[in-house]
Amino acid sequence: MSTLHDMLSFNKQFVEEKQYEAYLTDKFPEKKLAILTCMDTRLVELLPKALNLRNGDAKFIKNAGAILTQPFGSAMRSILVAVYELGAREVLVIGHHGCGMTNLDASGMVAKFSEHGIDPLAVETLEKAGIRMDKFLKGFNSPEEGVMHSVRIIRSHPLLPKSIPVHGLIIHPTTGELELLVEDYREEAETN
């Protein structure tokens, strides 16, 4: 049986036994947080537990490396929706040690495209259209650099209210220990 069929079989039992009731909440984040983090499998359960977050407490936006590659991409759009439509009042960018985006080898990935049957002409066509693989597949030198890059883009975004703090953190993917890189209570500090 395939992984998908195993999951569908489990899901049927999950619904029939009403196991979902333990997770009931609504779409508005209870703790008014939007969290941009990495898609790393080690963080799926560890990160919410390490932050003392339950289902429904925060909006999680995940991608490779918690990186905003452009200010008007899907991750930034998700942050704006969390703020304007769902009531988030703080943004956390959380990277992690041992991230696969650290020193990502763009040319190595392009080589893997060919190994998996992607016609090199497709990459060449994209490059001619202005999509440079070295930029599209760019990682970072350290997770701290990646987090701070995303924090800067979010903070300076023309559509994000200045009153929304944007914090940067790094999590250890084994222990869950958090390291605060930047705390951003700008408005609160300015009024005191």
UniProtKB/TrEMBL annotation:
It holds the Pfam family Pro_CA. SMART domains: Pro_CA. Binds 1 zinc ion per subunit. It is an enzyme of class 4 (lyase). Coiled coil: none annotated. Its EC number is 4.2.1.1. GO terms for molecular function: carbonate dehydratase activity; zinc ion binding. InterPro entries: Carbonic_anhydrase, Carbonic_anhydrase_sf. Zn(2+) binds at C38, D40, H96, C99. It comes from the Bacteria. It catalyses: hydrogencarbonate + H(+) = CO2 + H2O. Its cofactor is Zn(2+). Keywords: Metal-binding, Zinc. Belongs to the beta-class carbonic anhydrase family. This is carbonic anhydrase. It comes from Paenibacillus soyae. The lineage of its organism: Bacteria, Bacillati, Bacillota, Bacilli, Bacillales.
